[in-house]
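Co-fold these.
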Amino acid sequence: MDLSGKACIVTGGSRGIGRSISIKLARSGAVVVVNYKTNEKSALEVVAEIESLGGTAMAYRADVADYNQAAKMVEDVYQKYGRIDVLVNNAGITRDALILRMTEKDWDDVINTNLKGLYNTTKSVVKYMVKQRGGKIINISSVAGIYGNAGQANYAAAKAGIIGFTKALAKELGSRGITVNAVAPGFIKTDMTSAMIQKTSEDVIAEKIALKRLGEPEDVANLVAFLASDESSYITGQIIAIDGGLTL
Amino acid sequence: MEILDRVKKIIADQLGVDEDEVVPEASFIDDLGADSLDIVELIMAFEEEFDLEIPDEDAEKIKTVQDVIDYIKNHTS
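Predicted complex below.
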């Protein structure tokens, strides 16, 4: 995958799937802005790893749930690189609880980061992509958004919201050469899923997956790199599950 | 530069039409081939060029080149 010279923003790019996406895009030649909210150390480590591989990256602190912070980040990136080719809306959190125990804050926090965050970053980026007459927006949804998951009403609602957002924008922006797609990962080995994996053993989870194993963050990153490249230019408005056959 | 000339240039650049086609009575959609996204982009470009905030309810009424010129004249000092 050749992404030479493309300027990319990866929200939540310092850890988990976002970290792998940042590294994969940079390895493919892209200039990567590794967005993070709290964990500066992890973000700087990702940048250092990219630089050690001969790539170019910068860390940028912004809470995507905050409209002004997200808009400022996008503007700063545009001022610095003069273009924005790829936006990966990856930042996401979980506040799992059964609905009877779910607080309003649990609900709001997840919706604000995982769904409203997409409005905040995308609105700002689209202004430039429309002028450029091209761009790639890749949203990280989840199989929880397609099939639901007990204990994740907030997360599943946000991830399902991302799917509607993706399809609407694909229609809105297609005439400007902007593609908008979503990927929906299943069980991927990250910090986010490690708590769940500790509770239910990995073997029990793997048994439900056609490929009999959990996914690696790199599996998702490879798909995102393809969607970020010119080789996927006739794909838009799609929700691609990457779950090892979990949901078959 | 006159308002008309500045407006003409923005419209010609945005819609890829000749400046000669941008006559006051021209409708953006019917005569100049603009789509809904073009209109939004044009409004944003006018806001930037003339340091204006054009609210949605006003933007909806802007259909022709003359509409824009009138709006700018009435809202700039």
